[in-house]
Amino acid sequence: MYDLPAKFTYGVVRSYMAARARAGSAGAASAVPDEELRYPGHQHSAEWWLFKDLMRRGPRDRPVARVDDPADADLFYVPFFSSLSLVVNPIRPSTAAANASGAAEPAYSDESTQDELLEWLERQPYWRRHRGRDHVFICQDPNALYRVVDRISNAVLLVSDFGRLRSEQASLVKDVILPYSHRINSFQGDVGVDSRHSLLFFMGNRYRKEGGKVRDTLFKVLENEADVIIKHGAQSRESRRMATRGMHSSKFCLHPAGDTPSACRLFDALVSLCVPVIVSDYVELPFEDVIDYSNISIFVETSKAVQPEFLTSILRGISSERILEYQREIKKVKHYFEYEDPNGPVNEIWRQVSLKAPLIKLFINRDKRLVETDTNGTDCSCISPEGTAT
């Protein structure tokens, strides 16, 4: 793991805290020691969990191990908090904070920070050696690292989906799909349907862009259905409490596409033992080499799901015993979606990353013998999800 300048790790957390501090207290974030900083809780916190995992020293039972000598490394992890950086920009004018000379502090710029990160990396010998091919970046928010993604398309990208990425930038061959962090409390009870009085539950933004426009149609066909709870609501502490109650007391939880094919509510549903109903035709799912999602989810084509009464007629036809089977299967794999579990997604992400190492070595050795390749502006040498060479 690169020992990046602090501005790319703890500094991003401090900038986030300062931007949201009460007027006159923005400097308090700088007084908190690194080890006492807390990452803001949100769905992209995988970047914090992975960073803290590699920071731990001593014996470890992990698919990867951090080494101190870069000459011993198979892969190089770049621990930039790219998703948090994207949302640091102040919710109030940053000019309220002033430095000792009385001049206003400049506003945080995610774009400038991305540029500075690549400028720093491109000075490193191990980046230049293979043009970043053996490097790993996390960019879980679909817009994270958008400014420099073409310059890092050789690398292994840890993403939530490919919704904003082109096939020459990312693919299942070289990259890893991560679960979002769940935002609601895990259900602590056992399997059962008696206490789940609602048939179907969804709470989230009704109006989305691009592929998420289907949400509005789903609202129209479902909002007057009996036993269905479908609510418009933005992220807030109260909405999370309502979502927790709703998911813990519903048999099925709706997962429509957001602005990109995936959304955090899928993982909220799974830790709630609420059977996901996935209406997202191009969704990518984490850890599919060990998880058969057909055992824990119901997939419905978008064109059929938006037809009146189609979804509810399917769900009402599923027996209580079949719902219990879904719940039992969810319980078996629930730990894969709970970042706080010592044997949870952090372990699995590292395992997935480690599986990329032989492929990376293949690409590196292949590059050494090729005199010239037609890369069309990229050096990705990856295979698209459809299986065609790019």
Automatic annotation (TrEMBL):
Cellular compartments annotated: Golgi apparatus membrane
Provide the topology term for how it sits in the membrane.
Single-pass type II membrane protein
Domain of life of the native organism: Eukaryota
Kindly give the InterPro entries that the UniProt entry links to this protein.
Exostosin, Exostosin_GT47
Mind listing the UniProt keywords for this protein, alphabetically?
Glycosyltransferase, Golgi apparatus, Signal-anchor, Transferase, Transmembrane
Q: Which GO terms describe its cellular component?
A: Golgi membrane
Transmembrane helix keyword on record: no
Query: Mainly localized where?
Result: Golgi
Which Pfam families does the entry mention?
Exostosin_GT47
Domain Exostosin GT47 span(s) in chain numbering: 1-312
Question: Could you tell me one molecular function GO term of this UniProt entry?
Answer: glycosyltransferase activity
Q: Does the keyword Transferase apply?
A: yes
Quote the PANTHER family the UniProt record gives: ARABINOSYLTRANSFERASE ARAD1-RELATED (PTHR11062:SF50), EXOSTOSIN HEPARAN SULFATE GLYCOSYLTRANSFERASE -RELATED (PTHR11062)
Q: Into which family does the record put it? A: Belongs to the glycosyltransferase 47 family.
> What name appears for this protein in its UniProt entry?
Exostosin GT47 domain-containing protein
